Structure formats: C-alpha cells, structure tokens
Amino acid sequence: MTKNDGAVLDYRNVLLSKIKENAISFSIGLTLVTVLLLGGVLYSWSYISSQFKVEKKTQPSVASATNKVRTYTIQEGDQLWLVAQKLYGSGFNMEDIMRANSISNPDLIEVGQKLVIPDVKPKFPTTGEIASGIATSNKVTSNKQPATYVVKEGDNLASIALQVYGDSYAWTKIAEANKLVNPNVLQAGMVLVIPK
Which parts of the sequence belong to the LysM domain (predicted)? Predict the structure, then answer.
C-alpha cells in the first residue's frame, strides 16, 4: 500500500462519515418538518370544523306542544282525507297529519299504521253545516255554467282535485274536461274548467 492509498482511504472515510452525519441531520430535520406540518394540519382541521360545525336541526315534536300525544291507528278502508275529516271536521287537515308523520304520499298508508295527530285548528270545514258567507274561496270561481280554477305555482291535478272535490283521485275528471294531453304539465296562470 502506498502513501497515496492511505490518503484515498482517509478521504473516503471522511466522506462517508460526513454523509452519515448529514443523513442523520436530514432525517431528523425531515421528521421535525413532518411532525410540524401534521400538527398544523390537524390544528387547522379541528379549528375549521369547530367554526363550521353543522348542527342537525330537529323539528319540535308534536308531543312537546301539548304534552299529550294523540294517535290514530289506520283501519281498513281509511284514507288520510277521511281520517282528517273524522278527527277535525275538515279533510284539509290531512296536510297537518302528513307533516306530523313525515308522509310524502297520502296514498301510501297501511292498515295498523299509527299516526300522530297534531293539535292544530280545523281548517275549512268539509263536514257538517256551513254557515252562509263562510264558504268563500278564491281558488274556485263559479261562472254561470262551469267552475274554473286558476293554476298556481306548485299545483298539480291531484292537489287541485283534493281542494275542489275532496278526492285527489278525481284529477281524471279535470284532465278529461280540459283535454289535457299530459296531465303532469300545468303552467301557473292556466285556467282549468272544473266539471261538476
């Protein structure tokens, strides 16, 4: 081995030791940076989530208004309109029953189903005697012959039939009388003939 060989070995050893020192420093630095970044991200995420916390809105229960829950069990042949008529004297209170029970389709009720009956005022009476002057409505107007109905935003034939006849299935009468090609297409302001 020559003198130059020893210098090369020392140089190599010095170089390797420097690389190891730098690698350790680099690893420690990288670990610290990673920990700081993760800590910052977690802190930011927790701060943001606490600032924009979405709370589930709960609707007050029917029972909280009266502390007395009234229920009705669906019987064979029941329809929500008839149930409302029986309990309130007005089939129009069907909407209150639907809202209290989260019912979106009044035709989808089952025998044995328990309904919460909300404590609300009866709407326009559909049973019993109606005193003169009370039975006025701006929804159905009667000319000499046919009655007419002016379509409002959000109306459909079933809801109109429910208002006019008290039976949502009577929408076919209105569709036939008005020769509607597509009964699902109504426009606000359209005047419909309401057959008697």
Answer: 70-117, 147-194
